Amino acid sequence: xxxxxxxxxxxxxxxxxxxxxxxxxxxxxxxxxxxxxxxxxxxxxxxxxxxxxxxxxxxxxxxxxxxxxxxxxxxxxxxxxxxxxxxxxxxxxxxxxxxxxxxxxxxxxxxxxxxxxxxxxxxxxxxxxxxxxxxxxxxxxxxxxxxxxxxxxxxxxxxxxxxxxxxxxxxxxxxxxxxxxxxxxxxxxxxxxxxxxxxxxxxxxxxxxxxxxxxxxxxxxxxxxxxxxxxxxxxxxxxxxxxxxxxxxxxxxxxxxxxxxxxxxxxxxxxxxxxxxxxxxxxxxxxxxxxxxxxxxxxxxxxxxxxxxxxxxxxxxxxxxxxxxxxxxxxxxxxxxxxxxxxxxxxxxxxxxxxxxxxxxxxxxxxxxxxxxxxxxxxxxxxxxxxxxxxxxxxxxxxxxxxxxxxxxxxxxxxxxxxxxxxxxx
Length: 426
Fold this sequence. Notes:
Elements: E1 2-4, E2 10-12, E3 15-18, H1 22-33, E4 40-43, H2 59-62, H3 67-70, H4 77-80, E5 83-86, E6 91-95, E7 98-101, E8 106-108, E9 111-114, E10 118-120, E11 133-134, H5 139-149, E12 154-158, H6 162-173, E13 177-181, H7 194-206, E14 210-212, E15 217-222, E16 229-234, E17 239-241, E18 244-247, E19 251-253, H8 256-260, E20 269-270, E21 282-284, E22 289-290, H9 306-320, E23 332-337, E24 340-346, E25 353-359, E26 364-371, E27 374-381, H10 384-396, H11 402-405
């Protein structure tokens, strides 16, 4: 909406993007690529320009990468493209047309995009606030954890998801004693099939990680000073000694600002396939959202991945400019846990059949997922060719027959077939 500046001239707030995340930066870039010439303001809480987050639990934590190498763009990119990057400012209040930061800075806007991401789920037990209890979500978390790993000897990881297992791999490779405690009956339970979960449990144990499943945590034990963590108390009363505790039990979408605007939130900011919130004038993208299945349009789910952040941000930019949405993109994801490289294409939710290719114990195998005979996803462990073939098939709307896929010696790329059309009605 037009505004008057101090000299009475009409000004425009342009587009305000709240959250200098992967999705936030991509949205700004996409606006410019689509020819938008209005002002763009990208606001982030961290003092750093947007950077890659996946390496924080891998290369950065292992000390083989630094923040400078993770930056998405050179500092000159932002002014050269007319993007006003505001770092170290937290927006605390939103109302139509105006945002206010914690420092009192006011940012007018005409168009609004929320790319606020998610924060780590906190461990709700006594002692969780002790020194030595860490989370891993941003650069500050990762830098603190890397420093603590350098002097630690016994590490307990609470949570057997991707972040926890990646960090456990780094700690074990550094020669530390590592125990992973998972409340569910298997690792990565929300992301992969049981055969993959079982494989990762065995593989980490072979590498010297103690993996405890179906095991709850009831408290963090303090040391004699009462300030630092000294151990983890399990549900059966067992005390695991630890001088470092990493909590990786999931993420919580950041919906506070969306709620201020009265937007519908249900496990995240609810958006449609065009990235529109319940207010069609406001878009949202990335880890903070829940959306229809990106390929089928069914249900409502939250996807935490680089690919989804990028694809959803591109869609949001097109929506703000009244352009057609980009073509539907196949979801993909990766997790590198030491020398175990998991690549996922598609979404296996709702599968009714799966096919295992290769020898699981050789640590080179893949699992193809099917629903009603049609390929919907793959988990590939150290089998990149299988991953690429399935991703190609899904992108083309094709399939790979399950019977043929079971032959581990047959290259999947040669088995891609078109999906048979339904027979015409009589």
